[in-house]
Structure formats: structure tokens, C-alpha cells
Amino acid sequence: MGEDLLTIGRILKPHGVRGDVRVLPLTDWPERFLELERVFVGSHEANEQYAVRGVSLHGKVVLLGLTGIDSRDRAEDLRGHSVMIPESERVELPPDHYYIYELIGVDCYTTDGTLVGKVTDVLSTGANDVYVVEGPSGVHYVPAVKAVVREIDLEANRMVVEWLDGM
Hints:
Blueprint: E1 5-15, E2 20-25, E3 38-42, E4 47-58, E5 61-66, H1 72-76, E6 82-86, H2 100-103, E7 107-110, E8 115-124, E9 129-135, E10 138-143, E11 149-153, E12 158-161
Parallel strand pairs: 7-12
Antiparallel strand pairs: 1-2, 1-6, 2-5, 3-4, 3-6, 4-5, 7-8, 8-9, 9-10, 11-12
């Protein structure tokens, strides 16, 4: 078993007749595609490694050329597949910023030590992210702002929040 992979895009459809594909970036840094030398295409369970032969940013999509994918038919076979990179090649985030996959499953506690539940999703609202926390008392929406989220300790799998009425 190899290194863990992170999904950075999803192949939408072929582009042109030489095997290029249109990729929807699933990253805040689509320009990262310009630096890639290899990617894994498929799913986390079954994928194939490809050398990158060409990349260009085209509006909100990335045009990606992969070595060995040299026709529209071969590119069509990749429709809907994930584009992944090894976790070791991820972009390093500034302090107090986290990847969504790192937060999923983290236990959420109030400042008085009450377990609220586990983070099951992160919603991007534009203004700030919102953590979806599911537990015995239902589903709660926790704004990802410093005034509410007091601590995140990934090693301890723990988030501490200042509980506000209405959450």
C-alpha cells in the first residue's frame, strides 16, 4: 500500500482530440496544477499514476494533458475520475488553518467539557466556514471563527468551542 492520496480535482470531460481533459479543481490553489509532474487518476481504492505532459488554467477549469492519454476516446474513459496527489505534496497551510479532511471526525467539546459530537462536514459559506457537528443532541452548525472555536488539536482529535445559543 502506498502513500495516502489527496483529491485535488475531478475530471469533467475530454478537451480536444489529443487526449487532454477538463478538470474541476477541488483546491483553493488551482495554480498548483502548473507545478505537478505526476498525478494519480481514479479513486482512492483503484488508481493509476500518470506523468503530466501539459497544464493550462482555463477560466474555472484546468486543462490537463497526461502521458499515455493521447486520444479523445482514452480521455473519455477518465470522465468523472478523481485527480489525486500524494499527501506529502500538499500545500502547507498557515498556522491555525486546516484541510477539511483533517477536521472530519474530530470530537467537538464545549469549553465546559461537554461532548457535542463529531465534525461531519465543513460548509464554505463565503464569509467563513461552518463546521457541521453531529451528536446525541442533533446536528449543530458551528461558525469557524476564533470567537467561537477556541482550540483545535488534531493530535488529540479534539476541538473546543465557546457554545452560543442557537448553535
